[in-house]
Amino acid sequence: MPMIPFDDHDSFIWYDGRLVPWRDAKLHVLSHGLHYASCVFEGERVYDGTVFRLEDHNERLLNSARILGFEVPVSMDDLAKATHELIAANNILDGYLRPIAWRGAEQMGVSAQATKIHLALAVWEWPAYFSPEARAKGIRMKWANWARPAPNTAPTEAKAAGLYMICTLSKHMAEAEGFDDALMLDWRGQLAEGTGTNIFLAINGELHTPTPDCFLNGITRKTVIGLARKRGIKVFERAIMPHELANAEEVFLTGSAAEVIPVGEIAGEVGHYRFTPGVICRLMSEDFDHTVGKKVAIAV
Ligand code: PMP
Q1: DSSP 3-state helix, strand, coil percentages of the chain (rounded to 5)?
Q2: In ligand 1, which atom is closest to the CA atom of 193?
Q3: How far apart are CA 179 and CA 175, in angstroms?
Q4: What is the residue-averaged pLDDT of the chain?
């Protein structure tokens, strides 16, 4: 698939209160957000012209900013209005929406009290995050060399740009070895998450997922927990050690971009595991597709 340069589209970006032509949505090179990662963002999916769980995403965006010590200058209502306006202006039915808030260039240095807070929203059409083949067989993951940090060493509850540094490094390492993604442990050696997804294990027909105490408690994760319980499938949120993957019949990941995606293999020093996507992956994927209003369920 050809790479689309993301600064070169024909449509509009919502930038600090108004729609601007896509190519004009620029920021100064001395922006604090760029130098010191004072930047938070969201990743949302548009299904049939509507963002799935928009309010949850918007709340998380404003809260991520507060965790980083700044207030995004927009109300929840105005943020929702801006989102609708942008989707309509760009005529997107099925897409990905990226709100981002960051500190500007008024002050350069670690201290940033005088910076202005900026907010931009962009939306574009979205193909599947992983290939149909990967979706059917399950993706291939490699253990990351980086661990999710302890909550007293990074603002782990925020969807903050700086926390993605180790995700990009881990994903690049996995891709360089032909894998689809990397799987991260946390600072204690417990199972944590993918580089942009949460993880679930099916053990004896029940679901187990790590307690999100040092990584994002994903909106898709919460949705899937609700859907599983509605089906009568028990869900346990607990500390999970990597060797417990040996007991799992199925493993899948969840995320706004990835949706529900089966895992076929996890390789690397921590241990080698193989899984065949089965009935749990299929049910959770179908239930999720149904909930977001997708017309065609993806067969797994
Ligand atoms: N963990 C990380 C690191 C992520 O980037 C994401 C995607 N936002 C998730 C988990 C899943 O979160 P959500 O389901 O809210 O998209």
Answers
A1: 30, 30, 40
A2: 1
A3: 5
A4: 95
pLDDT band at 297 (very low <50, low <70, confident <90, very high): very low
44-47 and 95-103: which strand pairing? Answer: antiparallel
Q: Give the atom of ligand 1 at the shortest distance from the alpha carbon of 223.
A: 14
Active site residue 159: yes
Whole-angstrom CA distances from 213 to 151, 216, 282, 296 are 8, 8, 28, 35
Is 198 a pocket residue for ligand 1 (Cβ < 6 Å)?
A: yes
What domains sit in the chain, N to C, each tagged with a CATH number?
A: 12-125 (3.30.470.10), 132-292 (3.20.10.10)
Per-residue pLDDT, 152: 98
Kindly give the interhelix angle for 219-230 and 54-67, rounded to the nearest 10 degrees: 140
Atom 12 of ligand 1, residue of closest alpha carbon:
218
Give the whole-angstrom CA distance, residue 12 versus residue 227: 35
233-282 per-position pLDDT tens digit: 999 999 999 999 999 999 999 999 999 999 999 999 999 999 999 999 99
Residue 274's DSSP bridge partners are 265
